[in-house]
Amino acid sequence: MEQKDKQHVRRRKKLGGLLTMPFILGNDASEKLAVVGFNTNMISYLTTQLHLPLAKAANTVTNFSGTASLTPLLGAFIADSYAGKFWTITFASIIYQIGMISLTVSAILPNLRPPPCLGEDSICQEANSSQLAVLYVSLLLAALGAGGIRPCVVAFGADQLDESTWTYFNWFYFVQGSAILVAVTLIVYIQDNVGWGWGLGVPTMAMFISIIVFVVGYPMYRNLDPNGSPFTRLLQVGVAAFRKRKLRSVVDGDVLYQNDELDASISLGGKLLHTKQMKFLDKAAIVTEEDDDLKAPNLWRLNTVHRIEELKSLIRMGPIWASGILLITAYAQQHTFSLQQAKTMDRHLTNNFQIPAGSMSVFTSVTMLATTALYDRVLIRVARRLTGLDRGIGFLQRMGIGFVISTLATLVAGLVEVKRKRAAIAHGLVDHPRATIPISVFWLVPQYSLHGMAEAFMSIGHLEFFYDQAPESMRSTAMALFWTAISAGNYVSTLLVSLVHKFSAGPDGSNWLPNSNLNKGKLEYFYWLITLLQVINLIYYICCAKLYVYKPIQVHNKGGGDNNTASNDENQVELANKV
């Protein structure tokens, strides 16, 4: 059995490599082009084409983003349990394609949208239930497709490489950022100036091409076989520990049950070593008289140390996972209220050309790309001399820097909103929501750019953290956790907007977040509320990072033996204390 596993590892290393990257990253870039090309400007589509009130439209945007980031749990389960990453990505891409086609058709056919407004101040007819149903079904299909692509394509790409996965994550995000840059410039421009049919049709065609290219690369990919449901294994550990809850805890971890043959298929990258945290779970590995057949144990009563440590690893990752939620809540405002700010400001570059409001996200993308490239080519080399780490700084440190920058971004956003409203008052435009306030839209650049810089640090660090700290057999599941943090962040944004809209409403019709006239609102208060929440979240994160225990792993050396390695990155522990 051991010889067979060694041969399997050698066979895997013959495949994969850098040649597979264009096929894999091309698929992800097309998905990102499609979702960002619509999501960035969705608030405009919902308010100008479907005539939804601002608060309802903002919540629709964040609900879609939240759902599209929640479905990766389903995609990861299917990939890790049954289909494998390649087939999950392929079929999910097809579902995504169907959703994009449906969305494009709804933007082309007039009867799937309400009639246009007749005048600048006329009352517009809101989309009816049938028209909204087509929209929601299309978005649901896109969300389901994204659920299969997002958690798998990151892990699938990393599986093709034997070393320097931290470099892969940097360039993975760089490619994504490039797709986003095209989406927020070319695609948004087409939507605003040519039409939504072409604006959605172009990314739909790009998605179709990417599916063909991705499938063509199949013979070159390193495909890891699914190892059964990771959720079942986690549940088995929990049930076994509960059934043996009355047993006395074992002090010596060496007496706990281990079975290398049983764990062979889920520990090809290395066996997890016993840790002293969460000792109640260790009871699942205590051998009793009832566990008489150790070659084929009842996994609902007896589990190996490796399987117990898989569960411990995921539990330890939980607090760090939760810390990323509020950053996404702050980031989500770029596609809702920041975009509405931009629509009221002077966006002219020349007398005949003005920047589409949805294209303001270009500053986020450019800053993110520049920061990622600078980090990968300059900052890592400098930090490497100081820390001795190959990746420069630990991923927990990188995330912490992102949290600080994100907090600064929402603080700046509130200050800019104060200036925008003062300009509206000075020019007597408070009662004219569709009038252009004579203040340059470039005042919004700092908040957009700071969010891009924060993403380059926090989001890439988050990806590194999940991939590095997750058990090898659960890496698609770990990538899904990354997306569920994004999902939760968007849903928290929806909840926050709804609560603020409800409880800030005054008897005179005033509101922090008014439906139709942003000039009469208190958007700056909303931004500062998010800033305060992020400060609290930063303190929480620092505490979590200091207490975090890295997974210990025993890796296999080239000769087939085991290196006595107590941690997958010994320097990370020391760095964690400096966050």
What does this structure look like?
One of its GO terms (cellular component) is membrane. It is a multi-pass membrane protein. Belongs to the major facilitator superfamily. Proton-dependent oligopeptide transporter (POT/PTR) (TC 2.A.17) family. The protein folds into 2 domains: 435 residues, Up-down Bundle (Growth Hormone, Chain: A); 81 residues, no CATH class. Helices cover 65% and strands 2% of the residues. It contains 20 helices and 4 strands. Strands 1-4 form a two-stranded antiparallel ribbon. A two-stranded parallel sheet has the order 2-3. Helix 7 packs antiparallel against helix 8 and helix 13 packs across helix 18. The longest helix is centred in the first third of the chain and has 37 residues. The C terminus is likely disordered.
